[in-house]
Amino acid sequence: MVFDLESRTVQFYHSVDKEQILDSLKAISLPGDLISSQEVLDHDIPDIAPSVEAKTLKYLLGINFTMFVVEIILGFYAESTGLLADGLDMLADSFVYGLSLYAVGKSIAMKHKAAYFSGIMQISLGLLCLVEVGRKFYFGSEPLSNYMIVVSVIALIANLWCLILIHKHKDGEIHMKASWIFSANDVIVNTGVIFSGALVYFLKSNVPDLIIGGIVSLVVIRGGISIMKLSKIKKAEPIKESCCSSNCD
Length: 249
Hints:
Elements: E1 2-4, E2 9-14, H1 18-27, E3 32-40, H2 50-78, H3 81-103, H4 108-139, H5 145-166, H6 174-203, H7 207-230, E4 239-246
Antiparallel strand pairs: 1-2, 2-4, 3-4
Helix pairs in contact: 2-3, 2-5, 3-4, 3-6, 3-7, 4-7, 5-6, 6-7
């Protein structure tokens, strides 16, 4: 619904008979007259709650980009492919949230395109993570388990916060569904890095770190593929639009 209080009209975007809309208004003592009715496509429907989505996405973008910087710096210092992979995952998510933020208030087609490019970015960074895992496997590394565990716990808390923020939008449009998918994946990834850090400590081996680095890379790639599948634009079905004036005083 789109309200215009000055002209005392309201626009309804619906897929039911217009008479049902008028009857519903009368049932709540808001009698109205039909001014016009026409068919519109999905991509012509305006976003009615862009400010709420934008605020949430700004928080998600800030949290993820901050954790990307932290994990990349400490990942190199700790020689941990797990932290580096998780850091790149945070960067990929930052791109996702940035593109989703751009898509807020745009047409449905634009939101699908933003999600599609988010998927491409996820896959590209996932492949980059795999290259780094291979490099450390070939040249060797001595990951610092204490850094892995502490930083991953902080990242887990940050991602749980993101998950709480995005939860109310998880059943929204494609760009918000993409954000939910990546936030949920991050919680799983962080738990895995914490576990691998503990194994590195007890086994005195870099193998657990390499394994989790590879797993995180595959999770990132899988997330990218999933969102690209979701972003396939289907032919929009027409939706009826009715505009009624509410003549109640």
